[in-house]
Amino acid sequence: MTFRLPRIGAILIALLLAASAALADQDGGLPEARIKELALEAILENPEIIEQAIGLLQQKQLARKKADLATILAERRNELEQDPNAPVLGNPAGDVTLVEFFDYNCPYCKRAMQEVKTLLQADPNVRLVYREWPILSPGSVFAARAALAARNQDKYEEFHWALMSFKGRVEEGSTIEIANEVGLDVEQLKVDMLAPEIDEHIRLSMSLADALNINGTPAFIVGENVYPGLLTSEQLSQAIEDARSLQ
Fold first, then answer.
1. Residue ranges per domain, the chain?
2. What digits encode the pLDDT tens for the residues 113-149?
3. For every residue of 161-211, which 3-state class applies, written as one string?
4. Which residue, of 104, 112, 175, 229, has the greatest Cβ tally within 10 A?
5. Omega before residue 47 within 30° of 0, cis
6. What is the C-alpha to C-alpha distance for residues 86 and 92, in angstroms, rounded to an integer?
7. What span, in angstroms and rounded, lies between the C-alpha atoms of 67 and 47?
8. β-strand 126-132 against 96-102: which pairing, if any?
9. Whole-structure pTM value
10. Among residues 127, 124, 94, which one has the least CA distance to residue 221?
11. Nearest to 132 by CA among 226, 224, 218
């Protein structure tokens, strides 16, 4: 993590004030300007003080973020893992749940598709929950709504893989074309896309992503950890095993 100049300036001021207070206690009548001058000289002669202060600040921030994340995950675990309004792939009775936030127009999500497939093939005890999170374009929104609606025709998984495999941007036209290719009743699909539970799924995805400070796709959640960005099947497998070890 890189700090911007204002943050470093704030640290320096804090160090100066602390040093000034210490010198004032020791020397009593020393003028304040002289105390600050001596403190600044000490810091300039020992610049590692600033590095140490930044390091300590980073450690405290990281610890606070981990604690905050653990609290949020505990509070919203049921929404993440047991939402009946979310598609579940893999083993519905699996011993570890992996949650993925994704967008059909995200190139990294498309690359993650094969990694996820490899994981599911290698580990029959993974329960995969998908959070449709269409954030990149109107085409993403249309595709997400269509995919969720495909559950009513028991074709979510087939439609999902087909959308992810599509070369190029997914728009309304390409989504309908793919729906036809996988054998969906497109007219029924269009009706089902307007269902309130689809609005609720996307709303909850937005809410969870915001709460967990997820800023892009893909993002994976398993156990007590959030993994932003593309992961290989090996990395996903390791995350699964880490979660299992804590059960």
1. 5-75, 83-245
2. 999 999 999 999 999 999 999 999 999 999 999 999 9
3. HHHHHCCCCCCHHHHHHHHHHCCCCHHHHHHHCCCHHHHHHHHHHHHHHHH
4. 104
5. no
6. 12
7. 31
8. parallel
9. 0.75
10. 127
11. 218
